[in-house]
Structures are given as C-alpha cells and as structure tokens.
Amino acid sequence: MAICDVCFRHCQLKDGQLGFCGGRIGDKDGVKAYNYGKITSLALDPIEKKPLRRFYPGSMILSAGSFGCNIRCPFCQNYEISWSKIAQREAQRAEYISPEDMLKIGLGLKDRGNIGIAFTYNEPLIGYEYMVDCGKLFHEQGMKCVLVSNGTAELPILEKLIPYIDAMNIDLKGFSDEYYANTLKGDRKQVMAFIEEAVKHCHAEITTLIVPDENDSRKEIRQLAKWISELKDDQGHNIGQDIPLHLSRFFPRFQMTDRKATDVALIYELADLAREDLNYVYTGNC
Question: How far is residue 90's CA from residue 76's CA, in Å, rounded to a whole number?
C-alpha cells in the first residue's frame, strides 16, 4: 500500500489501483503518474484563452491536456477527460508523446507565434512529473511553460514545479469552505495556500467562475478580492492589488443543466466590486 502525496486526499493505493483522480496509480515502488505523457488534447491557442491577459499578450501557446482530475466540479466543461470514471474511456485513446517529442512540436510552431507550452484542459498537477520533464527541455530552448490548474496540491509538489513554470492561471472557484467541500469535492484552504506560495515565484492570474446561487453573492466576491489584494511576494511586499482576476460567466452544462446562465449584468457588477481592491479585473464569457 502506497500513499499519494499530490493533494489533500492522500489516496492509499494498492499496486495497480487508480487514485480518486484517475491519473495516478499505485506501484510496487510507490505512486506514479498513470497519465504520464498520455495526451488527449493538443492545440495552439491564444495565450488569452488560458486565460492570461498580462503574460505575453498577443502570443500563441501550445496547449496540452491529459486525463483525470482531483476535484469534481459538476459544471466541468472538459468532463470527458477530467472526471475519473468517464475519463478512463479517453485514457484508452490517449496518444503517448514523450517530453522530447512535445518539444519538437513546440519548436515547430514557433513560426506561428508559439512561445512555449501550457499544461491545461484536465488537471495537470496530478501528472506533475511530466510537467517537470517537459519544462526542463522547453526552458533549455528559451521557451515558456504555463500551468492552468485548480491549485489542489500540496506545497512540496509546487516546489518541484517552480523552477520550470513561468506563469499560472489558478482557479479560486469560490470563497466558502462549504461550496468547495459539498459542490466541488475540493479543499479551499489547500488552494489558497497554493496560490499564496505560487505568486511569490511566477506570474499568476486567478479565475473564478460565477455560478448562480452558489458563489455569486456580492459579499463573497468582496471577500475573495480583498484576500487576493493582500497577497505578498517572497520579500513580504504586497503584490496582491496587481494580480489579475478573471470573473467568468457560467453556462449550463454537464450536471448543472438545470441552472440558468449567469446574468451578464451581475458579472459586470461583481467585477466593479472586485476593482475596489484589485487593479486588473477581467470579465469572461460575457
């Protein structure tokens, strides 16, 4: 029996047993990334689509996704590759791409404006080993590495990634423990700790999807923006006011088709409230 060290779940896995995330597996030598290098999604995207608005704007980035996720958002737009049981079907069609071959793909797209690689679509942190191996190679070629993540990981995992990640967009999906635990099956405090440390080491932007009747109160957004505004760098200097926040509009999907899309006027109102504490607030899906 081996214990996974990636997130708060600390799954205890027998040899050959998949963790909750569906992307890590027990092995006689411990726990390893079952999804290592198994790519289900690959595209050249505008950097703004990650979304990153203040990191090399106007550029393109090779975006790669595998399968599996360690939380369970009922509105997931990539549930086919993220939700564990469903994602296992996608795992069978995944194409293995070694870090060396991924670098070749990235270099081959430089003439189309590619600046590097973004690990995205599913939850990349559950396969952090692949990010480290790719990151080393991409950095040797002067290319950038981006992480798009739910931030659900222990800090030692982040420490392993820090030398190889240039920018992150991290989901802070709400600002209540109840919403995280009951609706998302996640851990808000772990995400907040991840963000607190990440902003000290690389460019970081934060995204919150505004879901009607879940995390859309004015009080909650004020609290969320205030917390971001107080984040500090590794020297203890306040940098929070300049961390970009993306407030995105929810659309009915997956297991939340009974909800209405977030009212556009509410998104704009919440953005204005967040701007009382933050210098860069962007609205999405409006």
Answer: 16
The domain over range 2-284 is classified in CATH as 3.40.50.720: no
The single residue listed with the structure tokens 């942190």 is: 125
Residue 44's contacts (CB-CB under 8 Å, 6 or more residues apart) are 60, 61, 62, 63, 109, 112, 114
pLDDT 10s digits, 165-222: 999 999 999 999 999 999 999 999 999 999 999 999 999 999 999 999 999 999 999 9
8 A C-beta contact, residue 246 and residue 282: yes
CA distances 263 to 134, 183, 223, 275, Å, are 40, 21, 21, 19
Residues whose CB falls within 8 Å of the CB of residue 159, separated by 6 or more in sequence, listed in order: none
pTM equals 0.97
Range 86-95 contact pairs with CB under 8 angstroms and sequence separation of 24 or more: 87/22, 87/23, 87/122, 88/18, 88/22, 90/40, 91/22, 91/34, 91/35, 91/38, 91/40, 91/67, 93/40, 94/35, 94/38, 94/39, 94/40, 94/66, 94/67, 95/38, 95/39, 95/40
Domain boundary assignment for the chain: 2-284
Compute CA 41 distance to the chain's CA centroid, rounded to the nearest angstrom: 15
Distance CA 145, CA 147 (A): 7
**CB contact burial 212-249 (16+ within 10 A = b; e otherwise):** eebbbeeebbbebbebbbebeeeeeeebbeebbbbbbb
